[in-house]
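Long-time lurker. I teach an intro course on protein structure, and each term I like to show students one example going from raw sequence to a predicted 3D structure in token notation. This year I'd like something fresh instead of my usual example. Would anyone be willing to generate the tokens for the chain below so I can use it in lecture? Attribution to the forum is fine with me.
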Amino acid sequence: MSSKRPKLHKHKRIVIKIGSNVIASRDQGLNEKRLSAIAEEVSSLRKAGHEILLVSSGSVLCGTEKLGLSSPPKTIPMKQAAAAVGQSRLMWAYERLFETHEIKVAQILLTHDGLTDRKRFINARNTLITLLEHQVLPVINENDTVTVDEIKLGDNDNLAAQVAHLVDASLLVAFSDVDGLYTADPRAHPEAKLISIVETVTDEIVAMAGGSSKAGGTGGMQTKVKMAADVAAYGVTTLVINGMRPDLIKQAFEGLAVGTLFLPQAVRLSSKKQWIAYSLKMKGSIVLDQGAVKAVMQKGRSLLPSGIHSIEGKFGVGDAIRCLSPEGKEIARGLTNYNAFEMMKIKGNHSSEIEAILGYKGADEVIHRDNLVVLNGTV
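-- Reply from a regular --
Happy to contribute to a lecture. Here you go:
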């Protein structure tokens, strides 16, 4: 951690993530006064030459209020119904409020399966870039009305990270309902101090983060720290600020130390490796021996069958899987050249023995280094 914060005005393409609790509540629905202030802030950034994409939560809370529900919906069909009602309400508000600033908006709804396929990933990217080229403000949300557990992105912090990757943004701003990352939960520990800048997300930093601070939101500081760590690998800076307080983003761009700033990694992942590490659903895990861990993490080698100790899960050729150390810590992710059944047979054996064991050989490597991502660095 450091006290010196870099200037933010150099960032041209910016993703702004707006949390549910910032702009809506179960009892009162959409907070148009706060949304209007955000529209003003976004307009100012665009006039200064920045390209902005909004990732906005709030559809379920808006729908909950609109439907007159006495408590937040708990079943998936009810949540989807609330999202369907609330999403149109949310977009209509964005349409009206940004129109006063002569800004056109476009609704983009994404699901995880739209990003795991490389062609769909590129198509989504092209759509968003085209909107920016035509001075249109994309307002992005997860497609809650059709999302099920198998394709759910999880929360809009994760979605914001995916969008930053999609469009090669250099800055991600998260509007939260807290001031930033504290040394401890400030609600339970009044003496806790706000952390101004984080150079690297360590286990200590993760331990400082808690859960969601209010009912209605699916993310909390824990997911924001993960989001910051994910996009840092792609060279993206993250700023977490209190979205309930006006003008903080303006103050941040003026150089004031508001919120918590997470710095990017010095070495940036390629787009393909970022996609492997953070866009794909992991289908299984393999535990490596210590020699394989060293070869992958320190020497940038491909993963060979001789270095595999055990296999977990069911996965096919080309699926994304986790690579674990003997202690169970995830150290890498990659696309496998063999399915789980084949890997069970060849684990612990040399590549020269694969054909004799299986009767064929797809590749010498279980995961080639071009399809392997070390999570605390690059290979």
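Some talking points for your students: Residues 211-219 have pLDDT under 50 and may be disordered. The longest strand covers residues 104-110.
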